[in-house]
């Protein structure tokens, strides 16, 4: 869920009041308030976390578990809700269609987003690709997306993606140009929430039809996608990366103009 | 003095030995025995003469003197006014046997004795016959009596002077299983043979002056020792008559030789004696005691009270037995000061009430309804003319007994806890707390007086901790000045008292920001030993050596943290409290293992930051470890290692550990996917799934919570959860006997029924759907809410056929009721359900709802939800927001439909006005939904035309201006949607102009 327009006012209700320590009268130097020091680096992150959860957060807390009476009836341990969140066209149920090009061949691709959790900077969905192998004319995989921002940096640091690979891939997105020099700097965090362009990594994990199936002839999902999504146009572009596959396989997707919105919520 | 019962296993107590005329009359020695906790005396005979006296006394003693009848190998006869000792004869036996047979038949005796052999030279070296003759006759007399004892299944009380190993041989040859060798004077190696046959050895007080006996006791295992006095012989001092009260001397000496506590020796020897003689715990005729307690003679009452006190300690059966009599009413009467009862009796009465109440819910109910609580509270009042400090010191014993009793009563859930808030009582409690805590801090000396003061302070604090549950109570206590004495106690340095103070702070600060803040900032009043802030002390105590202290401190700080006083994330909570709790999880201490997971759950359950911190501090593997090991041990065998109480206690606490670790895992996994993944990788799923079928409803409930948290993930639903087979057990729980478990199971199924869950089909087909529909009619609101939630989730992204199937069962009529339910939360889910029904490309889905519910009815409801949300609600919780968004999105979805559907909306000016008004709502998600309303109302494509009146209506409502304002919205998504809407609106305007 997006943040309320009156964010600062909304925040005061959820921000606990600091203890005034009579010993020092100065929270920053009081040894009991060391947290301020700990926080300096990730302060922005925390604030963002608070903001994205703010609209979800409920003031009413479920009562203490330890203090409940032995015969007290209770069903839920917390009243915190886990509502779906939305970022432009990235919302549960949202669909995208397009192609993935590998050399001269291209394959039809359809993506359905299943869950978006902006507080965790993550998203997941299904990726359907047609005609990849004769045995499986259609393959659907489950993927998880890391949204580049305070929680996930541009540097991948896993999936066999070295820094130079990150660089060569991100650089192909024109929207990345402003960050060519800064993306690797300490303390740099891309604030996806306010930007037109949202960068992501999509990593496929298993086949939806059979999650136990580890490998398929002629098709692989060992790599991952570098993704750039533009909110104003609802377009997704991406590059598939796997050190043993052909590089820069190009994914382009258009949003399926769905105008009605269902809703589910994890209990 | 020990609280246990001493059994004198061998004495010669009868009128003959303790004549009424002497200083040591029977009455005197029995009274002093009783005061020394010698509660049973086995009095044995030597021959016909004393046997009848022993039997007479036993019959009058109310079970305190048990008779043993036997013919001694040495007989004392008088000749020429002189007592002469001689060896026993066949004639003696002939004369004696009828009495012994009669006693056995009448079950008048607890053992056969005193019997045995005595090969002392002055006995067996007679003038008439050779030594062997006397020995042989002694053997025959002994054998005969052994025979009778074995036949009657009675133990033998054996004399063996200078014949230790012969006596043991005789016993072994006759196959005797139960025997005590009294005042054994043989070699320790011989005695060990007796031990091998299971015989006991009773130790007289003369051991203090007998190196041989000391050596013997040092060798023999304490499991085969008994206490005796052989009164009037074998006393601690030579030439002084012995008496049963000296049995304690034997116990002391054994304790010294064995390096044990005296109380432990007494307890073990008591158990040994009970085993040997078959004395039940109910040895005292309890009717007599009950009778005696009502006596008008205070001394009688005092003795009876002592009997009760000693027999009920730690004995549930006894407690229940006494509680069934009207003894509790009598105790409460004794407590009343106006009844002119002595202080001693009142103290005893309070002590016994405390003992009754300890750990026994049923008796607590009884005590409470007998009116004990006000009486005990009255006992806390201090004399008005003395300073509280002095008054407390003068009344320490009464205060200790009364506060201990009150603590025991208030520890039970069956007690009524409001009485202490009577101003009179509250005032007393405060006086006591102030007086005790200031005396402690002033008086650094560790003496008995201080210990008692600390005890009263601790118990009073525990009472407060247990009685403080509501906000009003917290405030009242705070206003009465509870914080300074608690702070003083917290700094007192007495561990138990500090724990009690911590408990009290936990109760006071729970969800109370003002008291939390006041407590943290308080300092111990001068002359405080530390003078530091309470928060600092609490954090120090989190790092204390004692596990219980660490747990109490962590609990307290968790409650304070939950009161929102710390700026989050508060590093001390993350860096000190959380790791302490995680370390405590690994302690091999049942109480800690039981509590720590629950405290951790409280600490993390409402905060994503704390869940992250718990993850980073490796809480999940520790919790998983506990769950896995407690599940495994329980499955494999019922002989468990945790805990020290009875088997029942262990199983119960293991169940608690399982329940609480499941709850903690559920709490840690609520919001973060990495937590869920780690928990699943720690192999908790098999245990969790089997816990779903536990026989314990609390464990089933906890397992449901855990499944619910783990299933908040598309990835895990599609993989581990389907593999673990959660569906079957969860569906079964929909029929659970406990509605709470039903509701929790339904909650978990809410996730399993989602579009992307591979278990959706099974849940629907295996009775899930039918049950969800049924439960929407439940009286239980939690169950009802989860049922509607399930249906809402089920209809997300559903096809027309599924929608129709669900609605055939639920009925539109009932859906209308749900939309108007008293609970806003239910309204919200019902509205979302409608939103999902009208969602999608199928226009017939909207037709179904329009005709099923009635177009006007539906739009009336939506209109109402939109206008209800106008109302400003002052109490902070704006519930109407819950229904606003689903109502707006229902309209968005309807507006996607055919032109008829759009026309229906355009005919509702109230609805349209509200949409326009919400375009400047403070919540961005609401603003976005209004933009979508406009986009869909003005959408034109090849299939559907925009209703011609649309432009005029929207224009008159000022949509254009609003959209222009939204173009400058701080939220990017709102700007983007507003731009689209405006673009369409303008093209309508163009069409209009053409």
UniProtKB/TrEMBL annotation, chain A:
| Single GO cellular component term | vacuole
Coiled-coil residue spans: none
InterPro entries associated with the record: GID4/10-like
User: What residue stretch is flagged as signal peptide?
Assistant: none
Q: Which GO terms describe its biological process?
A: negative regulation of gluconeogenesis; proteasome-mediated ubiquitin-dependent protein catabolic process; protein catabolic process in the vacuole; protein targeting to vacuole
In which domain of life is the source organism classified? Answer: Eukaryota
Tell me which family the UniProt entry assigns to this protein. Belongs to the GID4/VID24 family.
The protein, known as: Vacuolar import and degradation protein
| Organism this protein belongs to | Mortierella isabellina (Filamentous fungus)
Lineage of origin: Eukaryota, Fungi, Fungi incertae sedis, Mucoromycota, Mucoromycotina
Automatic annotation (TrEMBL), chain B:
The record's section on SMART domains has:
ARM
GO BP annotations, alphabetical order: proteasome-mediated ubiquitin-dependent protein catabolic process
Which top-rank group of organisms is this from?
A: Eukaryota
By its UniProt entry, which Gene3D superfamilies does this protein fall under?
Answer: Leucine-rich Repeat Variant, Metal-dependent hydrolases
Repeat as a keyword of this entry, yes or no, is yes
Query: Which compartments is it annotated to reside in?
Result: Cytoplasm; Nucleus
The Gene Ontology CC terms held by the record are: cytoplasm; GID complex; nucleus
What keywords were assigned to this record?
Cytoplasm, Hydrolase, Nucleus, Repeat
Q: Name one GO molecular function term.
A: hydrolase activity, acting on ester bonds
* Main localization, broad class: cytoplasm
- The protein's name is Armadillo repeat-containing protein 8
The scientific name of the source species is Mortierella isabellina (Filamentous fungus)
List the top taxonomic levels of the source: Eukaryota, Fungi, Fungi incertae sedis, Mucoromycota, Mucoromycotina
